[in-house]
Amino acid sequence: MAVILIANLGILIEANPIGVCIRNCAQCKKMFGPYFEGQLCADACVKFKGKIIPDCEDITSIAPFLNKFD
Predict the structure, then answer these.
(1) pLDDT-based confidence at 5, cuts 50/70/90?
(2) Which DSSP state fits 34?
(3) Where in the sequence is the signal peptide annotated (predicted)?
(4) In whole angstroms, what is the distance from residue 7 CA to residue 27 CA?
(5) Is 36 helix (H, G, I), strand (E, B) or coil?
(6) Which whole-number Å values give the CA distances from 16 to 19, 29, 36, in the listed order?
(7) Residue 42, class by beta-carbon neighbours within 10 Å (0-12 exposed, 13-18 middle, 19+ buried)?
(8) Which of helix, strand or coil describes residue 43?
(9) pTM of this structure
(10) pLDDT over 90 (residue 11)
(11) What is the mean pLDDT of residues 10-19?
């Protein structure tokens, strides 16, 4: 019984919207490098409790976290 509970807990943690949001921020940071403010994105995930999830291919969802080109 405990094994099933622990296995289900792992699934719940992965489905946590804040966790998904932060992982997406990390992925966008890898894609865009110095042009993406990963820390700002992660802070927004926590502030809004994962209600906004950045999509690296959707400019409107990541626009607040992009730096301008120099």
Answers:
(1) very low
(2) G
(3) 1-15
(4) 26
(5) strand
(6) 5, 20, 23
(7) buried
(8) helix
(9) 0.76
(10) no
(11) 70
